[in-house]
Specification:
Length: about 300
Amino acid sequence: MQHAVGAPLPPHGPGSGHVGRPYQAQHAGHPGPPPISPPPPGPGRAQPSPPAPGQAPPAPGHAQPTPAPGQVPGPGWSGTGPTPPAREAVGHTGHVQLPPGGPVPLPAPPAEPGTGGATLAVLLIGPAGAGKTTVAKLWAARRRVPTAHVSLDDVREWVRSGFADPQAGWNDHSEAQYRLARRTCGFAARNFLANGISCILDDAVFPDRPVVGLGGWKRHVGPGLLPVVLLPGLEIVLERNAERSGNRRLSDEEVARIHGRMAGWYGSGLPIIDNSTYDVETTARVLDDVLARSIASPPAW
């Protein structure tokens, strides 16, 4: 890049001795501008550190820049001045790093009605049409502390080409994608909680099928996960399923079969909410009360 005669020369870098002196064209016989001498040390002026043995002193008028916090020092850094923290310790996002494999512990009982400001992980279970996703979103949005919602169906559908839809038949591919989605949701929940954000997950977990059972969720999230079953009557889930579209809408026979298998949660010891006569807001309030009781007396699962 060329500069016009008389234009200021861009500085060579931080601490450069060039302070806007007009640039004069250099040619044979032209002595050029006199060199700029560094100012003499005075009261309160820091003395430059002597170079380390075998290290060349810095060029006159060129002070070494101090890296900003989190910046990795470049070549030639002499070690004088504050030592920058390691990049791994700071993190690119500024968030707390997730402990590897750290299980979610049970939260302490809240000191107020409901779950209050407790940081917790929740698993909302129910058949298709129970209202899991709608209730989970509202419950998360109404809390006064940061709370995230993760739906396993949404995560499964991140796979676009090659998506193994369980409606086409449960096989090795659909099972593998389900397991992968559950691990992804579990990692997301632990990551949110490690950064002080509660998380509610929703999934159609069957009491009689180990592949889509509670064991996998407990493995991926931890013993502090609080499961709650949302189980309205069959006529309600059939109505809600009829309002769906796309691959989220199931046949009436499939809905009835899933609902019948979900009845196995009765007698399991898990809290069950029959929201047949509740609207979404009422169900979210009941869910909060049930979770508060689960924190005080965790279900055995």
